[in-house]
Amino acid sequence: MPEVLSADAVDAAVADRGLQWRRDGDELVKQVKRQGFAGALDFVNRVGAVAEAAGHHPDIDIRWDTVTLRLSTHSAGGLTERDLELAAEIDRLG
User: Do 21 and 27 touch, CB atoms closer than 8 A?
Assistant: First the structure.
């Protein structure tokens, strides 16, 4: 099982890696706006492909043109390196 990272370690990794996410308790959160609902769905589908390849999946909320992603390693009970790696992959989607 992956090791749960401390809040300080997560905050430092987010800053050091230039991730466009914020820590909210035991989750990394990112909100993305796209052009309308179709744009939001396209983004979610691209996130889905990356998540499937990683074998690690974010919680996803779609509100018309806004997508909110939440990452946490539920089986470990907090944030792990897997979450930071997937956050970086998702950031590369633009």
Answer: no
